[in-house]
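Data availability excerpt. The first of two example chains:
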Amino acid sequence: MARIQFELPEQFIFSTDIPIYISHVNQGGHLDNAQLLTLVSEARVRFFRWLGYAGEMDIDGQSIVVGDMLAQYKSEAFYGETMQVDMLPDDFNKYGFDLVFRLCDKASGREVARGKTGVVFLGGPGERAGKVSPPPASFMARLTTKTPTA
């Protein structure tokens, strides 16, 4: 099977630090692949908070769900390390966008993983409730006013 090839953007607009806890580590002594999703999910919630939202259930009257995820591992990560998670919304479409991410060990700069999460908007109360919907214009406006944190 051919390996996933995924190119990163030149710049990210959001960065957050997340420590690796013992519960993130598998029997091999490194970051468990399922726990990578947990770290990326935590960073995604922090991204939306950075934009000024309390959570993912009310993005200007709509909610979001993850439609898909791609991950490419670059190296192992270990208990006690702190991951710097960088993110950038990219590849916008009718119902959402990809949230591109990169995890690096904060101390050494070693890249651990990269990938993207497909974010899909769902309509709020009313006839569009729970159905895929275009991102709110107010959300898109917030993105254009944000400057990089890293």
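And the second chain:
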Amino acid sequence: MNIIIIIISIIFILIAAAVMFACYRTRHAGLFWIGFTYGASGVAALSLMQAWPLAAGFSMVWVMKMMGMESEVKEEKKSGDS
């Protein structure tokens, strides 16, 4: 069980790094809080070696996304489109 917690925690930390990079590029405050939550839950799960921080962090991020804290994807029009 410890191996699964370690793997998922590392995935959460990598997701946090990617979201923080996106936050740096877009300056969207919601992405900062989503990345912070992923990172904090990943680090907490690694330090406690329990799975509940991962479940709590995932559910908090899910609630944040439902509240609209995630940035919207903007589609670019191509020059040939009208």
